[in-house]
Amino acid sequence: MFKGICRETHNGNMVTKILKIPKFFTCIRNFSSENVLVEVNNKTNTAILRLSRPPVNGLNLEVLNEFESLLSQLEQQKVNGVIITSNKEGILTGGIDIAELQTIDQRRLKKYWTTFRDTFLKLYNTPLLTVAVINGHSPAGGCLFSTACDYRVMTRNYNIGGNETQLGLVAPIWFMDRVADLIGHRQAELAFTQGKLFSTDEAHKLGLIDEIVENTAEGLSKAQIIINSFANVPKKAREISKRFTRQQFLDKMIRDTDDDIRHFVNHIGSNETQKIIEQYMQKLKSKRF
Ligand SMILES: CCCCCCCCCC/C=C/CC(=O)SCCNC(=O)CCNC(=O)[C@H](O)C(C)(C)COP(=O)(O)OP(=O)(O)OC[C@H]1O[C@@H](n2cnc3c(N)ncnc32)[C@H](O)[C@@H]1OP(=O)(O)O
Question: Residue 47 burial (CB < 10 Å; 0-12/13-18/19+)?
């Protein structure tokens, strides 16, 4: 017997069921964590990771730790590809859970930012094939994490980009670098100085995303097609090529670790930024944009 976990919503409550599935019939391996649902299709050996942290899949410390650990498990299992999406159509993630930024405790800020960077690096650096199915809004941290994937498809009529400047915050330089890799330096400069969120169409025209899809189902099947298209590419050569094309960015990010963490702690931990964050949270709650 194979044990799987199935999570369903009944009358608004999340219910977790332990399933006993005869090995012979199993086509899904399922090892979800608290905030990230995972299923691996035994036939295609492809994993789908669905962010599942109501209300907006905010990236708090727990989500980041779970995500990083699940990716490590999938690397060990040598899956053929990983598809990253949201369990809630309409929002990939609202980015960093702002509650994590509402502190001047330097040790907490340092811990959060170290984990945030490590999780991004894990995704950016994984030898696995990764496809983001952006099935909803993807501001700030959400956009950043999707740029770490090898390929991005996005459903229509949502927004993606680095909006930090609009909030009175400054995005990390490596987010700017990564976006510049995809859309070019000039467009990245305009985007970050304005804190611009792009529509799906705009993001596609610029190259921030690779393809537009109509809905999550089409996104998932498109992602599988992309993963399949690598089936005949020698695995080792693909992995080394991925590493080589990403090496320069990686080296810079690692070289700048101490400066980046210090800037984050000083920037977010200042009373001035704390006021800005507090005001933004109030606006968000009262929907005054
Ligand atoms: C000077 C040197 C500097 C050096 C480097 C420093 C580096 C600094 C790094 C700073 C980086 C920041 C990156 C980020 O990710 S910041 C977060 C940015 N995210 C956003 O601005 C998104 C805000 N949210 C939205 O736009 C919308 O909520 C949504 C995601 C489009 C969804 O809209 P929808 O209408 O469906 O839902 P609501 O708006 O009603 O939201 C539902 C409840 O969720 C709360 N919420 C939303 N987003 C967040 C969030 N990111 N964190 C925490 N909470 C969030 C919202 O308030 C609602 O709560 P309520 O039900 O209690 O009212």
Answer: buried
Q: Are strands 81-86 and 46-51 parallel, antiparallel or unpaired?
A: parallel
- pTM (global) more than 0.95: no
CA distance readout (Å), 195 to 25, 66, 170, 188: 50, 29, 9, 10
Q: What is the ipTM of this complex?
A: 0.97
pLDDT per residue over 47-75, tens digit each?
999 999 999 999 999 999 999 999 999 99
Amino acid identity, position 144: L
- Whole-number Cα distances in Å, 206 to 84, 112, 141: 22, 31, 19
Using most ligand atoms within 8 A of CB, pick from 157, 165, 166, 284 the residue to mutate for ligand 1.
284
What is the model's pLDDT at position 141?
Answer: 97
Per residue in 128-174, pLDDT (tens digit) is 999 999 999 999 999 999 999 999 999 999 999 999 999 999 999 99
Tens digits of per-residue pLDDT, 220-232?
999 999 999 999 9
Rounded Cα distance between 35 and 57, Å, is 8
Ligand 1 centre to CA of 231 (Å) is 38
* CATH class of segment(s) 3-288: alpha beta
Q: Whose CA is nearest to atom 34 of ligand 1?
A: 56
| Ligand 1 atom closest to residue 280's alpha carbon, by position in its atom list | 21
68/179 Cα distance (integer angstroms): 22
Residues with CB under 6 A from ligand 1: 55-56, 58, 91, 94-99, 137, 139-141, 163-164, 167, 169-172, 263-264, 267-268, 284-285
